[in-house]
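User: I'm putting together a teaching handout on how sequence relates to shape, and I'd like one worked example. Could you take DUF481 domain-containing protein from Flavobacterium agrisoli, show the sequence you're using, and then write out its predicted structure as tokens right after it?

Assistant: Happy to. First the sequence, then the structure tokens directly below it.
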Amino acid sequence: MKKIALLIILVFSFANAIAQSDTLILKNKDVIVGKIKLMTNGALQIETDYSKDDFKIKWKEVIAVNSTTSHMINLSNGELLNGSIQTDSKTQKTYITNLQTQQKKEVDLFNIVYIKSVDDGFWDRLDANFDVGIKLTKAQNLQQLSINAGLGYTARTWFASASYQRMQSVQDDIDPIRRVDTDVSYIKLLKNDFFIPLSVTTLSNTEQDIDLRVLSKGGFGKYIVHSNKKYWGVAAGLSYNHEKYTIESSANESLEAFIGSDLNIYDAGDFSIQSKLTVFPSLTESKRIRTDFMLDTKYDLPLDFYIKLSFVYNHDSKPSADTSKNDYVFQTGFGWKLD
């Protein structure tokens, strides 16, 4: 019986050693052995046996990688590769080897901007965040609530995200204010840093008398800058706008073009900044142009908590009758993220 138990222990130990087969060498000569889960936005996440939580390491601190498992790898020039990663201990050159063809390609570690294990399960590819802000003021009985939630999934050559944002305010002698934004997006990655963006967004906004706006859009884009410090992507395409106003019984439908910009800076210490700007010139309504702008700044705290400042601005050159052309929301929040 003891021999059988010992054999079981040895089998599990061997299997675990195989699973934890990735090795990192850092600039300070530290060596970390585990399983690489993800490298994105300039940070690498590795799972180890000797820590309850995954290690998160800045990619610029890594000088050597050795992994025998297959990964999806994206270079800063937009090239997509699949294979294992090995850094030669003598020459310090790094190679990506296609495990099917055994072809090797020499790469610069600094030019690797994305790594994802192709063997990861569903939960390893999922990330989520949630934050809430509350304001209570005795004067005029002001009550204000803001909620932000997000969910993301990363696959081999695509990623998807969903978000929900709600802001509402109740105050004596003033009509209630409410704004609700939702967004479901899908991005297919192509060669040379091109991509296909698809999304469906909704907006409910008392300031502009929008009972519900549903916007479906698709297009074509390219990352102009894609590194371990930041990325900047631009896209253009068509959108279908279906909207219903509170004071109007009939719905309005229109076809729009769109051009957008997305800038994300994530190698600024514990700060990260993301800015999105999209302009929608209407193709079916004369002289109507809509503009959506978003700015998010986040400061990371220990234990995956964070504080957040965000600003959202909307402009419509031809809004519903007797409503404002502009609406904006400034929010602060405290939250937690899962990744």
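A couple of points you could highlight for students: The helical segments are 2-19. The chain has two domains: 2-120, 124-338.
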